[in-house]
Design a protein that fits this description.
Length: 120
Amino acid sequence: MASKMNILKGDTVLIRRGKEKGKRGTVKAVMPDAGMATVEGLNLVKRHMKGGQQNGSSNAATQAGGIIEKEAPLPVSVLMYVCEKCKTPARIRHGRTADGHAQRLCAKCGAPARESAKGA
Ligand SMILES: [Zn+2]
């Protein structure tokens, strides 16, 4: 079954599996080719940063390196769309607007989901 990306950047999602199971977050980025998405503040991995990358910077002390936390991509199959209106994890229904373009709808309450951000 070909999976269509139902999750878009900016959506609220529920994590269905893994260590972040049951948590909700906002989709930060989607990678449709990989079928992956990052969710803000979830599935963080620690990255060690090397200092001294900033050339000509006088505040090198603040660039001394350290550990930053970064969202690791999650497979979209573990993400469930959460409707902004009814606040319930719901399946996406595909409908059409009056002027004929495709629209995502909440399968529970029928509220239209956000439009995909143009150019995102
Ligand atoms: Zn809804």
